[in-house]
Amino acid sequence: MRLIAVIGSSPGVGKSTLCRALAKSLDGSVDHFEEPEILTRQAFRPVAEEFGDGAGAVRPATIVACTRAFVAESVAAGHEYVVADALLPYIPSLVAWGHDESALTAIMDDLARAVAPAEVTVVYVHDDPEQALRRAIAREGEGWIDWYVGKLADQPGTRNVRDFDSAVAHLRAEAGLTRRLLARTGWRVVPVDVAGLGPDEVFAQVKRDLG
């Protein structure tokens, strides 16, 4: 089974649009795991329960165990591909919940073991966070940025985010962290810089790079 995990450096980079296009383009048995489904998929039920118990966070061990269960479930179901939107490797959530780089390194090692025997490719969709956030605001409305900043400010690992500028700074730092962590996993990483590209151009580039 091939797991294609599409992650983005910030909201507004077009990862969900890319996920939908990729899922439709693949031949064979394809499971498109959309971002909200982490709270509804059976394999991730423990994640939903921990997140909803009032703590607003999930233990890394639970995430690793649910990922292992999901991969086993997908292999048993005979899926040739899973295209996952903002699933593996969960870095933005883990950062927000207060895990530092040392802890994240250990978690990535656990996740790399948990996804075996799946062949993992991470498509990392990147743009300058300032431009990406402005696109997200244009798409969602002016009130969206207040919601986004408030969501980050409420979490122990991202309490330094108080406004648009500090959100941009946080996302830039997180992008560097993400690259360092992904480099440790041994997974294939397909980076795509979407600056100046339309959705069709992004899709064509990723399809070419995926082979």
How would you describe the overall organization of this protein?
With about 210 residues, this protein is of the alpha/beta class. The protein has a single domain (about 1-205), classed as Rossmann fold (3-Layer(aba) Sandwich), CATH 3.40.50.300. The chain has 9 helices and 5 strands; from the N terminus they run βαβααβααβαααβα. It has helices at about 15-25, 45-55, 60-75, 90-95, 100-115, 130-140, 145-155, 165-185, 200-210; strands at about 1-10, 30-35, 80-85, 120-125, 190-195. The protein has a 5-stranded parallel sheet with strand order 2-3-1-4-5, sandwiched between helices. Helix 1 crosses helix 9, helix 3 (about 60-75) runs parallel beside helix 5 (about 100-115) and helix 5 crosses helix 8.
Name a few traits of the molecule.
211 residues, alpha/beta, Rossmann fold, 14% strand, globular
User: What is the name of the CATH class?
Assistant: Alpha Beta
Instruction: Please tell me the overall pLDDT.
Output: 95
> How are helices and strands ordered from N to C?
EHEHHEHHEHHHEH
Rg over C-alpha atoms, rounded to the nearest angstrom: 17 Å
Uncertain segments are none
The CATH architecture is 3-Layer(aba) Sandwich
**What overall geometry do the principal axes of the alpha carbons give?**
globular
How many helices does DSSP assign? 9
User: What structural class do the secondary elements suggest?
Assistant: alpha/beta
Major beta sheet summary: 5 strands, parallel
